[in-house]
């Protein structure tokens, strides 16, 4: 499955995996290189990709060996030799056109060269509750309510409705951010969703 993007980011790989799962189902594991975006680091902090894999029960396999790199480079070389000249001949340049063109190239390539897995298909259906990528690709953290009833998260201020005359004594809220950038803040079982300021 091919996808063009401006650069390889956590968001781009999450959306690529989501596209794969919408087409084929949830894989048993993913085989990725040693970059931190694909694996939980020694510090144990999750990112969007590792959280999505954990939530869906997807294992991650580190591909550190020269043989693993060789497989990637051979595949890249194949597509550079075949796809790039076709793009040049057909004058495909902008990102939307690239991805539209890649879909047809991908289908033709897989038709010619794919073969069934010896052990059978190990994919599982997406859970019924996973309607969008935001349902599976999100991070949760806790923040403290300041004396002015605001919560700071990633250099943004979120205002919470006052619940009394006195400020909260270091009360905690749960902050959930999705891969699409939506921020939800839950305090005392009430939730607000906003990209800038959340008011309860």
Structure write-up:
This protein has 200 residues and is an alpha+beta fold. It folds into two domains: 10-113, Nucleotidyltransferase, domain 5 (2-Layer Sandwich), CATH 3.30.420; 137-194, no CATH class. The chain has helices at residues 10-24, 48-56, 66-89, 95-113; strands at 29-32, 59-62, 138-144, 150-153, 156-159, 172-178, 183-187, 190-194. A hairpin with a 2-residue loop joins strand 7 and strand 8.
Instruction: Return residue spans where pLDDT drops below 50 for at least 5 consecutive residues.
Output: none
Instruction: Tell me the series of helices and strands, N- to C-terminal.
Output: HEHEHHEEEEEE
Q: For the residues shown, what is the average pLDDT?
A: 86
Coarse shape: elongated
According to CATH, what is the topology of the largest domain? Nucleotidyltransferase, domain 5
How many domains? 2
Strand line-up in the sheet with most strands: 3-6-7-8
The DSSP helix count reads: 4
- How many β-strand stretches? 8
Helical amount? 25-40%
Which class do the helix and strand fractions yield?
A: alpha+beta
Cα-atom Rg, whole angstroms?
Answer: 22 Å
Ordered list of secondary-structure elements with their pairings:
Elements: H1 10-24, E1 29-32, H2 48-56, E2 59-62, H3 66-89, H4 95-113, E3 138-144, E4 150-153, E5 156-159, E6 172-178, E7 183-187, E8 190-194
Parallel strand pairs: 1-2
Antiparallel strand pairs: 3-6, 4-5, 6-7, 7-8
List the keywords:
200 residues, alpha+beta, Nucleotidyltransferase, domain 5, four-stranded antiparallel β-sheet, 34% helix, 20% strand, elongated
């Amino acid at each position: 499955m091919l996808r063009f993007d401006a650069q390889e980011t956590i968001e781009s790989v999450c959306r690529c995996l989501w596209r794969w799962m919408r087409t084929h189902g949830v894989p048993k594991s993913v085989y990725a290189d040693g970059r931190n975006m694909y694996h939980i680091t020694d510090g144990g902090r999750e990112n969007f990709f590792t959280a999505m894999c954990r939530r869906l029960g997807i294992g991650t396999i580190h591909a550190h060996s020269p043989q693993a790199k060789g497989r990637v480079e051979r595949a890249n070389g194949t597509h550079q030799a075949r796809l790039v000249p076709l793009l040049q001949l057909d004058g495909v340049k902008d990102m939307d056109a690239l991805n539209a063109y890649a879909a047809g190239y991908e289908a033709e390539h897989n038709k010619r060269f794919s073969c069934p897995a010896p052990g059978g298909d190990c994919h599982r259906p997406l859970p019924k509750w996973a309607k969008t990528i935001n349902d599976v690709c999100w991070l949760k953290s806790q923040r403290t309510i300041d004396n002015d009833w605001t919560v700071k998260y990633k250099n943004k201020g979120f205002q919470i409705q006052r619940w009394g005359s006195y400020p909260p004594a270091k009360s905690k809220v749960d902050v959930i951010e999705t891969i699409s950038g939506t921020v939800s803040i839950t305090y005392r079982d009430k939730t607000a969703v906003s990209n800038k300021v959340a008011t309860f």
